[in-house]
Write a structure and sequence with these properties.
By secondary structure, the protein is mostly beta strands. It contains two helices and 49 strands. The chain is 2% helix and 47% strand.
């Protein structure tokens, strides 16, 4: 990909794509500047689009305008070939802590995971969470980064162009998906943790040539990894400990590896020939084709069948299943028949799979919701994959064609799909044009943490004739999840398309189980929409006393107390270790800690403190 990037820079040919569904309209949302590598909408309802540039700048687009001062400029940053600032994502409790995570190449031999704290529109408190990630300062650096539904930080690194970390290598993070706690420490349940042994304890999955982008499926929380290929572009559904097989041949992984859910030949369609005579058999509206050698087709892949002697077998179909390496089935209406000859040809999707996302909004008809969208850097095409109830791929189609240099995409707070162009930095908006009124809520699956606050947005699909009142309420599930603000929204003929914000809060409950609740978005005369809210449990921490400070001789002593929100603690004191201990203050914690002033300590030369949990 690096060679083609260099060649394309001088071509001057930059085009936008065209949605194939005429119900979608594409417009230019903004120009974010050259060499965009990632886009991410702030999950706080602020209508801010954070954009990462390869050169190290993180800029903010708000209301279609670029703010004059960058959110942050990463330094140092190394930008040779495919290096640089490559990925950006948010903490699930962003509205409380302001954390923004980035994946950055900082030198010719090191990459890092860096965290910034957002204070307004400025990134502060740069913190290197994980250092020493492998690169050789050229290509296949990976760059994918995200926070999973388990509250862990994930990232992807490729083979650095020289097959670093491939095969059974568990010492290197090359060719791997890494996983860490949000403070950068190693999770004890990572699959290859061996403490002082030789494994790199951050490894979560392996066998990826260049995982430049990935995305978490909103409803299931499963990780879908886009791996830029040598012969095939591949998209994998990945679990802990999985091996995608690189550097073995792509799309022909043996039984010990996971196989791609979606694949396509780089830079071309591919043709497999159907056996003559009885190579095409249709029974009960299902056609089974036998190819002259292994076809490598995947379920849901779209094929053009042509040249079969009986023309009723010809046409465009999706692979329903591939029972054996040399047979595949498609749904095909027609009389039972047997024939043969001809060919099956796949779609030419492009040559470098890039950023994708799941369409998680009611801003599109039901058939589009939950679909996986992804793009290709070289062709600029956008693809749409529909999925079945067990994540089987049912169909893969072109969604938009005619563009180039697609690098990333995300669903915006208005329920539209936004796509970014690497070279000129244009961000395109693809929005569905509704002809009937409905409620547009984004996202439909909200993930947050206990004790945290987050947001969703609501707007109308079309202009109303009069004001419309929309109500948002928790209707089932755990009562610890509640609407904190925005339970009643009013839309007018003038503001109907501007997303309004609903704030959600999840209370600490003291157990070790995450909470789930359903919200209902409703308005008189309109179909209601449901939102699923998942609050990740924040595990209890041991409570502690301290620090203990006295500003000056004779002043009152200040005592810190740290514990679990929602729990009640009593602070006790005496002047020796012998009973009795006097109760000084009883506190039910709202946050993690509190400060207690011991006014009775001003004349005491010595004071001892202890704390007890009461509930």
């Amino acid at each position: 990909m690096a060679v083609l990037i260099g060649a394309a820079c001088g071509s001057g040919w930059l085009a936008r794509g065209t949605p194939l569904d005429p119900n979608f309209t594409e417009t230019i949302h903004t120009n974010a500047g050259a060499h965009v590598t990632g886009i991410a909408w702030a999950p706080d309802g602020s209508n801010r689009l954070f954009v990462s540039r390869q050169s190290g700048e993180i800029i903010i687009i708000k209301d279609r305008s670029t703010l004059p001062t960058p959110f942050a400029t990463v330094s140092p940053v190394f930008t040779n070939m495919e290096c640089g600032l490559l990925g950006i994502r948010y903490d699930p409790n962003f509205m409380v802590n302001g954390y923004v995570y980035t994946f950055v190449t900082v030198s010719s031999n090191e990459q890092q995971i860096i965290r910034y704290t957002a204070v307004g529109d400025m990134g502060t408190n740069k913190t290197v969470l994980i250092a020493g990630l492998p690169t050789r300062g050229q290509n296949h650096n990976g760059g994918a980064i995200g926070v999973g539904p388990d509250g862990k930080l994930y990232w992807g690194i490729g083979d650095n162009g020289i097959r670093t970390g491939v095969g059974t290598n568990l010492t290197s993070l090359g060719s791997k998906i890494g996983r860490a706690n949000l403070d950068g420490s190693v999770p004890a349940d990572n699959p290859f943790v061996d403490g002082p042994g030789g494994n790199n304890d951050y490894i979560w999955a392996r066998g990826f040539r260049n995982p430049f982008t990935f995305t978490f499926q909103p409803d299931t929380g499963r990780l879908w990894v886009n791996s830029v290929g040598e012969v095939y572009e591949q998209i994998f559904l990945v679990r802990a400990g999985d091996n995608a097989g690189w550097d073995d041949p792509e799309n022909t992984q043996s039984a010990s590896f996971i196989t791609p859910k979606i694949k396509y030949l780089s830079h071309a369609g591919e043709t497999r020939y159907i056996e003559g005579g009885t190579g095409a058999v249709r029974t009960g509206n299902v056609a089974t084709f036998t190819t002259t050698f292994a076809h490598g087709f995947r379920q849901g892949e779209k094929l053009t069948i042509a040249g079969v002697g009986d023309p009723s077998f010809n046409g465009m179909f999706y692979v329903a299943s591939p029972p054996t390496p040399a047979t595949f089935k498609v749904a095909q209406n027609g009389a039972d028949a047997t024939n043969g000859g001809g060919s099956a040809t796949t779609q030419d999707q492009g040559g470098a799979v890039t950023g994708g996302c799941f369409y998680d909004s009611t801003g599109v008809p039901a058939g589009y919701r939950g679909n996986l969208f992804y793009g290709d850097f070289m062709s600029g095409k956008l693809m749409r994959a529909t999925l079945g109830p067990t994540n089987e791929v049912l169909s893969v189609d072109f969604f938009a064609t005619g563009g180039v240099w697609h690098v990333d995409m995300a669903v915006g707070p208005d329920g539209a799909l936004y796509c970014a162009n690497y070279f000129d930095g244009k961000v395109y908006r693809l929005a569905y044009n509704f002809t009937q009124q409905q409620l547009v809520a984004t996202p439909t699956v909200v993930r947050m943490v206990e004790g945290g606050t987050t947001a969703l947005t609501v707007r109308l699909a079309t202009a109303p004739a009069q004001n419309v009142q929309v109500n948002v309420a928790a209707t089932s599930g755990d009562s610890d999840i509640a609407v904190a603000a925005g339970s009643t929204l009013t839309f007018t003929p003038g503001n109907w398309q501007a997303p309004q914000v609903v704030h959600l809060h999840a209370a600490f409950d003291g157990d070790s189980i995450g909470d789930i609740a359903t919200l209902t978005v409703s308005a008189s005369g309109l179909a209601s929409e449901t939102i699923s809210v998942h609050a990740l449990d924040v595990f209890p921490v041991p409570f502690s006393v301290g620090p203990v400070t006295r500003q000056s001789p004779g002043a009152a002593i200040h005592v810190g107390l740290t514990g679990n929100p929602g729990k009640t603690y009593v602070l006790e004191g005496n002047t020796n270790f012998l009973p009795p201990w006097a109760a000084l203050s009883t506190n039910k914690l709202v946050g993690r800690s509190t400060n207690i002033v011991d006014f009775d300590s001003t004349n005491l030369p010595l004071r001892l403190y202890r704390a007890r949990q009461l509930d």
